[in-house]
Amino acid sequence: MEQTWDEQYKQLWDDRYKKEEYAYGKAPDAFFEQWLKKFEPGLILMPADGEGRNGVFAATLGWQVTAFDLSAEGKAKALQLALQRGVSLAYLVGDLQQLTFNEESFDVIGLIFAHFAAEKKSQFHQKLDRCLKPGGIVIFEAFSKNNLQLSLNNPHIGGPKDIDMLFSKENLVADFKDYEILLLEEEEYILNESSYHNGKGLVIRFVGRKPLTSK
């Protein structure tokens, strides 16, 4: 029987993460590291956390981390990394469609190269918004729609080849409506993250604070 798109996408990540090498290295994403250090540790949700480099880093700063990903192979590598770093995190395997979290329960949501299926990404962002406490922070970095041509010319950069899985600044403003924008930019970025993020890429970066009251 032919695999569904979701099954193929899960298989892609399982195949990538089952190798001994950490696909994107063990160090946290530099942008995430820079911004997370600005906030007092609390409860953080890390969607699509893969092999755990960002979730484990957050735990080393004293954050109480809940992470999730489609890949059980990613979870195994993340727990191994946490053990090496002497920290722990709660790590669930599944799609955001299947998982449930309490509303207004997290202080920060870290979305680092979390490229969801095109038809789900706005829906997922809205579901994540409901999980965030009023006044909570979203730290977001992912490939820009303008990265597509760069990645076609240099596949080592990484990123989806489906433009609808990529982002524009307007996408973030629409999905996280009424947030106080602390940062919103499209940035040319030299990626040097192990095997799958290498070369000049274009990313969208967003840091926003959820309103204290809904409008």
TrEMBL record:
Matching InterPro entries: Methyltransf_11, SAM-dependent_MTases_sf
Record's keyword annotation contains Methyltransferase: yes
Domain annotation Methyltransferase type: ranges: 50-140
Keywords associated with the record: Methyltransferase, Transferase
Highest taxon in the source lineage: Bacteria
GO molecular function (one): S-adenosylmethionine-dependent methyltransferase activity
Coiled-coil residue windows: none
Transmembrane annotation, as ranges: none
UniProt-recorded name of the protein: Class I SAM-dependent methyltransferase
Pfam family, one: Methyltransf_11
Keyword flag Methyltransferase: yes
Record-level GO BP terms: methylation
